[in-house]
Structures are given as structure tokens and as C-alpha cells.
């Protein structure tokens, strides 16, 4: 390879590394799904870690096991519980964001056949601004579960671009 080609490739590599969203430092662990009976929507919870120097913005999620995955926030004000869809969630630089019961979560509806059952592992793709995706395994837990059961596998970021849900 000529010196000219080598310099050109090095320059392209540096340019790609400087583009926003080229590499993400977001990881996830303790992913779990609270499965409700019948056709009721399920809820997904996970711990997200951002070791990077810039905030990462979670913009959507998808799964081959659910026709619809939405970002939601549950709240309880003056004894009145409510839930609302949110457009995106920020994971601040060098910080964590916990999706947990009574707070931010993934609302999972329209389960595909065969419907997930307790003990299954369901892959959920978390999509970030800049085209980044994070493939995360979630363990399906029963309706009465309060946490992941400390057996949930972890996920790590990939730089592949995934289609929006």
C-alpha cells in the first residue's frame, strides 16, 4: 500500500471516529420483563450505563417478540397513578439511568407467537440518536416480580444501524 493510500485511510478513520454516534459507550445489564397475564402489555426494565464523555439519547426500542415497544414513564402524584409515553431518554455522560417499576420503563405490547413465557430470554434493541443500537437480552419474570432475580445477562453496544420500530 502506498504512503498516499495509507494517509487517506488514516484520515478517513479519524473522520469517522469524530462523527457523533460513531461509537457509543453505553452498556446495559439486569434487563428483565414483568409479564402480565393474557394480552396485557408487559413492562421492560434495565440498568443503562454511559461511560462516555457525552450524553447518549435513547430514542426508541424494538423487539422481534413484540409488535410495539414504547418508552414510558410511570408516576404517582397525590395518590393518583399515571403513565405517559416519552419521546426519548437521556443517559448523561459518566452516569447511569435505571428503568425500573414506578419510573421509566419499556412498554411492550402485541406479543408475537409464540408469546413470551416466564424464563424466556427476549432480545430488545435499544436505539440511540446517531444510529447506534444496543442489543440487550431481557429475562421474562412473573407478574409479581420486583427485580431481575439477579440472573439477567448483559448487553454491549454495537455500531450497526437498525431500522426504527
UniProtKB/TrEMBL annotation:
This is Copper(I)-binding protein. The keyword rRNA processing does not apply. Residues 1-23 form the signal peptide. It comes from the Bacteria. Transmembrane segments: none annotated. It comes from Frateuria aurantia (strain ATCC 33424 / DSM 6220 / KCTC 2777 / LMG 1558 / NBRC 3245 / NCIMB 13370). It holds the Pfam family PCuAC. Keywords: Signal. InterPro entries: LpqE-like, Lxx211020-like, PCuAC_sf. Residues 150-165 have a biased composition (Low complexity). Residues 145-165 are annotated as: Disordered. The lineage of its organism: Bacteria, Pseudomonadati, Pseudomonadota, Gammaproteobacteria, Lysobacterales.
